[in-house]
């Protein structure tokens, strides 16, 4: 994956549970719970389709220990293989919490498209 993905607008009501969809199956090492991942990602608001963050726009990937990330990523990335692209739809409870939680994205259902570049 060498280009920023377009995130398709999803019809219907926001899901109440985590949705994980492999868009491209990777063939490299697998991400493990509690591990470190190197990713490129795009995040959009489920209801408006507006992008709120993208590592692509900063021109470099992001490297994180999974335990430091939102629950949706902690649950949705393990099992993914390097070289893969995965879409994760995260209800508020698995993202930044319910409305009024103090984060600008609290109460929002979020869609992420994540490219797994490496694990470590």
UniProtKB/TrEMBL annotation:
UniProt KW Isomerase keyword: yes
Domain of life: Bacteria
Protein family membership: Belongs to the FKBP-type PPIase family.
Protein name: Peptidyl-prolyl cis-trans isomerase
Catalytic activity of the protein: [protein]-peptidylproline (omega=180) = [protein]-peptidylproline (omega=0)
Keyword Isomerase included in the entry's annotation: yes
Naturally occurring in which organism (per UniProt): Aeromicrobium camelliae
MF (Gene Ontology): peptidyl-prolyl cis-trans isomerase activity
SUPFAM superfamilies reported for this sequence: FKBP-like (SSF54534)
EC number(s) from the headed UniProt entry: 5.2.1.8
Keywords associated with the record: Isomerase, Rotamase
Domain PPIase FKBP-type: 34-120
InterPro entries recorded: PPIase_dom_sf, PPIase_FKBP_dom
